Amino acid sequence: MTDYFKISIIVFLLSINIVNAQPNIKARTAILIDYHTGKVLYELQPDHSIHPASMTKIMTTIVVFDLLEQKRISLDDKVTISEKAWRMSQAGYSSMFIMVNDEITIENLLRGIIVASGNDACVAIAEGIAGTEENFVAMMNDKAQEIGMDSTNFANTSGINNPDNYSTVRDIALMSKYLIKNYPYYYEYFKEKEFTWERTGGDPITQGNRNTLLYKNIGVDGIKTGHLAVEEYSLASSMIKNSRRLIAVGSGFKTNALRASQSRKLLSWGISNTETFEISKKNETNFEIDAWLSQNNTINGYTKEDVYVTIEKKDLRNFNAFIEYAGPVKAPVKKDQEIAFIKVYIKDDLLKSIPIFASEKTKKINFLLSLLTSFNYMIWGDA
User: Fold this and answer.
1) Which of 89, 95, 117, 176 is catalytic?
2) Which of 19, 102, 204, 256 could form a disulfide with 81 if both were Cys (CB 3.0 to 4.6 A apart)?
């Protein structure tokens, strides 16, 4: 026999404002994903090859964050600035305005990259960590392959013009999700609205973050802008509303203003028209599964992964989540034994099936009590 138990998810249907229609986004290529599920909510030629411009710097920082997490470097370590790095600030690119032979901490260089979008800071941090920018770029490409960015190749640390520096908005979204998930502490840098560099031999320089959505008080906390004449304007952005996070990436916006307005439009559309539910937290959420011939009437269960589901709000009335198992589950049960499944449906369509595992070992009751229990079950159909 198979038992079904509905998971209680409260949905306030009457308060939902459903827009439905896909937004008309004025970009060459764009994508919108839900952070927790990775579900694509909107796409416009998401696999079209682009030059990622300064969105490249997301990977530059990821490589640094990796080394910080491994304690191979520290935020207080200092880098001596080379002439090559300094010349980047003299070439008309966005810069932190470092000077030759300056000694600058890793933390200040990171803020110069993330907030001020300093190309000079990119070269400096690469040389300080890997000896040369080329060595550092090899680390970036290794990391891209690890993440699964199959349509990406990095040719430099900053994203300046190079035909061999290419990606897609799908890959940039994947990279952005990786950044936020794996380095939550360091991701805080991406929400900073300005950075003041106490430079050598001159007055301090304060520069604002180029991501103008940070100033709108709409829940955007990153990520990175980009601009190249050949690619026009681009933006990877992320918005939080309550416990939900969306990631949008677009490229080929005609103007800086369109970059902001169209990205905001895309993020807002996603919040208004879709919903994400948390079904289970990895190793935390407890499910009570009916047991038979056990010392207890139930067995506690857990999932080995976070379970989230993203659906369009128009489908909420047809959304159901159940715990399903052939039960009651007969003892003995080993710890971590598969004992049930979470089944998520839209109408009759199965969206997800996630196993539930026993939290602890469950012993079988003694022989005489087992006979009595089995007899009661045969007579009354109730263990």
Assistant:
1) 117
2) 102
